[in-house]
Design goal:
The complex is a heterodimer of chains A (134) and B (102). Chain A has 134 residues and is of the alpha+beta class. In chain A, 42% of the residues lie in helices and 26% in strands. Chain A is built from 4 helices and 5 strands. A 5-stranded antiparallel beta sheet of chain A has the order 2-1-5-4-3, with helices on both faces. The two termini of chain A are 19 Å apart. By secondary structure, chain B is of the alpha+beta class. Chain B has a 5-stranded antiparallel beta sheet, with helices on both faces. Classes of the chains: A alpha+beta (134), B alpha+beta (102).
Amino acid sequence: INSTHFSIDLMEEGLQSMLKRLLPTVDGLQCILVCDRDGVIIVEVHTDDLPPAIVKPIFMGTFAIASEQASKLGVGKNSSVISYYSGHQVIQCNYLPLVLTFVAKVDANTGMLFALEEDLRDSVNQLRDLIGVS
Amino acid sequence: SPNYCIVNSSIMEGQLESQVTEISQTPGIVGVICTDKQGLSLAAQGTLKSSAAGIVAGLASQANSLKMGTGDDDKPTVVVEFDTGNIMIKSQERSTLAVHKV
């Protein structure tokens, strides 16, 4: 049990510092976080200008439900949802039971954020495997 | 023999698709992509896949932020040189077009 806990800590610290390094690479990106299906945050980095209301479980928890419903449309498994709001955009990526979320200003480059997601794919998959059961 | 392409003009993006197809049939052109300002792909053919859209739009917008042009309409053309060919990226007001030429 101790060694698993230790390696999860290492993994989290590795992921956290990677996210911190990647945060300034896209103009307008304000937050990158990994949470579980209920919105409990596992790893998170954000800039100072992020409105605090966004990083709340009630906001994050809706993705799992929406994604599962979207997967029933008959065109395959839902991989991501992009939501544009008046001031922000939120990109949520399906790694259920984990969710990878990017929060950025509304005029930020969405395509670049998807390119960033590709860079993080292996690490988030590793984290998901470490956590184990869905 | 000439290349023919059958274009479905009754679909929403038919006109854009036919333009992109015409460009990609030019000798030497192996990839074409058209993106919007948010870095999302509008049309992509050949070596330039839709996953390249974000980077293409990002490069164009970063180059434009040098603000060396004479006005809003004077946007730079970005040329990315490889040993095997070039990718040329040009922005208009609401879209960006990139072409891969060998």
